[in-house]
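Look over both lines:
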Amino acid sequence: MSVLEAVALTAGLTAVTVLTRALFLLPRRAWDLPTRLRLALRFAPAAALSGVVAPELLLPGAAPGAVWVRLGAAALAAAYFLWRRQILGTIVCGMLGHWLLAALAR
């Protein structure tokens, strides 16, 4: 791939990404979403997070490292979520727990 092709590809991907994101930001007034859809969208971050984390925990050999390290980090993250109910803190707590437990496993 030449430099020109790489630049054109990057510009095209950037344009598509900005355009798809901007479609929700360009209208002058807020969209009136149905109540059921608004309620369902509240669960989107948790669903996306569980879709990423569940295969790493449940599939054998999906991620490197000891099983107890992954399960311990998941338990720490779940405990934090039950305590504070914050997605970002859950991710940070799970990652810090994983790094700490992986360091202890060495």
In short: The chain has two domains: 1-52, 65-105.
